Amino acid sequence: MADKGATTVLRVIQNQDLDVKQKLRLIRLRAEHFFFGFNDRKGFLLKFVIYTLLLGIGFVYLYPMLYMFITSMKSLSDLLDMAINWIPSSVYLDNYNQAYQVMNIRPALIGSMQIALFPTVLQVIVASLVGYGFARFEFPLKKLWFALMIFSFIIPPQILMMPKYRLFSEIGLTGSLSAFTIPAALGQGINSTIFILIFYQFFKQTPTSLYEAAEVDGASQFTSFFKIAIPMAVPAFIVAFLFSFVWYWNETYLTSLFLTSSSTDITTILLQLQSFEQNYEALYPSTEAGPNRINEGIKMAGTMLSILPLLITYFFLQRYFVESVDNTGITGE
Amino acid sequence: MSNKKIIALYVLPSLLLLAGLVYIPIFLTGYYGLMEWNGVGAMEFIGLDNYMNLLQDPKFWFSARNSFFLALFSTLSLILYLAVSLILAGKIKGKELLRKIYLIPMLLSSVAIAQLWIKIYDPNNGMLNSLLQTLGVDSPPAWLAQRETVLVAIFIAIIWQYAGFYIIIYSAALKGIPASLVEAAEIDGATPIQIAYKIKVPLISGVIKTTIVLAIVGSLKYFDLIYVMTGGGPNGASEVIASYMYNQAFGIKNFGYGSAIGFALLILALITTWGIQKLTASKNDSIQF
């Protein structure tokens, strides 16, 4: 590419019909096109800046993952060796073995799946309905309801903890999955307001002409919702599902409040991670002969195990996220 | 089925529990603010004393100032997120991979993120100061332990945490823009920057407005990372309203005063949200193709 630029400059200089001023202007133009781009072709400099920026930011975002992954592979001697920073001397998988034992993985995984999946499905369905209602219909006091809905997001959850816990234990929801599914089914799950707002925006963006056309063809409100609104908002559904799943999965405040304080078998991976150190001490008591101390590598292996299911869900959904948009035909017309 | 029934069916689920879970506790919070109460023992009615003290409490106003800075910072960072989303919507090699990478912090719990950034900011062998030392800075700051740097250090971690959330919302919105509009502009000779600024951004202005509300309101009640990373310290320098409230109510068991702070936070957030609505109301918030 640089070669081509140079030959054009040569050709401009050799051109006898132009005076010096015109020649300089032409050279400047060519250079500008080369560095800053022309129409849809991006210039070399612009491209370079963009890619450096994106990759730089990318590294800052990838760093924690790499750090966690590599530390989880380090044996004790590697951890203590200051010279070993990025590449462990050998792949040491015993950390994972120990973390697996400590975290009680099988019941914890089942608990986490239940608490993340069921409320998420309910929450996404309800949020899409509420968002659709606000986006498509006019009804009395709509502004007030909308303001109240946003208002419920403003309130710091810490304020509501005490009254909520009292209410839930009085009606017997604590210690069971219902403490999560029932609020989610009524649009009061974790960050429901955010999802309602996302759906509201997506349904507002759908051209009204589509609904009008469907109405003319005799479609009922339900048909419009299922056949027009939902296909147009598939990206919103994926985004809402993903975030809701992640937020429920990582929730420790509510889970420790509702699950550990009363007698229940349900436990989650994040709760296990929270009490990782105590559980480790209980499982591997330090004896005089061998002080079996917990180390950074084992902790990181535990953290890796806790986010692995999220990573799998995410990479699966990300692919679907791209395909869904192509299938809706939004981009076509 | 009549229209009214359908409307009720769509909107009612959210309103049913709303009263029980949200609005009654709000009134309770305002009511507890009138009490001298340690959270478990007997309450004693002291009238408006908590609220009067609050108005004259320099620590409260300082935490309110910090919350305001965080809101400003988060809103400005939306520009960065939007720019990255617009670039990723173009013909960039490896954009799917990059988008995946930017979302990683959203997968981590707040506690894990806080511990990670504490390691990065470690004054002795943290990544940041090691880098600064190799670049020739003699005495780099002890980021989280110094009054001057602690806020910026935490804000950067928060921006880092939420980038993926906003980028994916913007990306989803950008994908909804009909390709025909962009193609028409390209045929007319518009540059990518013109297309981004004159076509794409106006078309997703509704989503942008929503994210502004989310960012500001989310900042006002922000708590997680600050609580784990510094607990509001050193010496209250990184205290925000929510952490101050938590420290008062659950830390030193001054539940009445904590409730008063919570109630003040509500009023502040309400005024702010109302202000945003008023400021953006003049623009048409729905776009018809």
UniProtKB/TrEMBL annotation, chain A:
Keyword Transmembrane helix among record annotations: yes
Span of domain ABC transmembrane type-1: 109-317
GO CC annotations, alphabetized: plasma membrane
Bilayer topology term: Multi-pass membrane protein
Domain of life assignment: Bacteria
Short name of one Pfam family: BPD_transp_1
Organism: Streptohalobacillus salinus
Gene3D superfamilies in alphabetical order: MetI-like
Name of the protein in its database record: Carbohydrate ABC transporter membrane protein 2 (CUT1 family)
Entry keyword set: Cell membrane, Membrane, Transmembrane, Transmembrane helix, Transport
Location of the protein in the cell: Cell membrane
PANTHER family linked: ABC TRANSPORTER PERMEASE PROTEIN MG189-RELATED-RELATED, SN-GLYCEROL-3-PHOSPHATE TRANSPORT SYSTEM PERMEASE PROTEIN UGPE
TrEMBL record, chain B:
Keyword Transport: yes
Principal place of residence: membrane
Bilayer topology annotation: Multi-pass membrane protein
Cellular localisation: Cell membrane
Regions that span the bilayer: 7-28, 68-89, 101-118, 150-169, 255-276
Family (UniProt): Belongs to the binding-protein-dependent transport system permease family.
Protein name per UniProt: Carbohydrate ABC transporter membrane protein 1 (CUT1 family)
Record lineage: Bacteria, Bacillati, Bacillota, Bacilli, Bacillales
